[in-house]
Design brief:
The protein has four helices and seven strands, in the order ββαβββαααββ. The chain has 144 residues and is of the alpha+beta class. The strands form two sheets. A five-stranded mixed beta sheet has the order 2-1-5-3-4, with helices on both faces. A two-stranded antiparallel ribbon has the order 6-7. The radius of gyration is 15 Å and the shape is globular. The N and C termini lie far apart (41 Å). The mean pLDDT is 78.
Amino acid sequence: MTHTISLTVNGRQSALQRGGTALAAGALLARCARPDGHQHRLRYQPCGSCTVHLDGEAVKACTVLAVQADGATIKTIEGMDSPTSLHPLQEAFREEHGPAVRLLHAGMIMAADALLRHNHKPSEAQIRQGLEGNMCRCTVTRTL
C-alpha cells in the first residue's frame, strides 16, 4: 500500500509516494528539498543538527516519521535567509564562531530562532533550555 505524503518545505509544496516502510522526516527532506544546511546525511544521531521548524515548532527531523509531517509546513535552515543576505541569527553565528562548527550551526540556529519567536528576551537558563539537545563540537561531544 502506498501513501502520498504532502508537505510544504521552505514555501515550496512537495509530495512523495511512500510504501509501507517508515521514513524519518529527515530522509523525506533529503528528497523534497535541497537540504544543504539540513544534516540529513548524519542519519539518527542525537546531536540536534537536523533541527527544523515543523508547523512553527523546533523538532529534530530524525525523530519525526514522514507520515507525522504529512500536511505540515517545514522550514529548514535554507528557509531562513533571503537571496541577498543571511538571517540575523545566521550572521551572528558566523561572526561569533566562523566556519569552525558549521556542521552543527543549522540546528542551533533553528532552535534559537524558535526560542526567540516565543520569547524575545530569554534569560540564560531559558536559552540553555531552548538549545537543549544540540551538540557542540567545541566541547567535543557535550550537549548544550
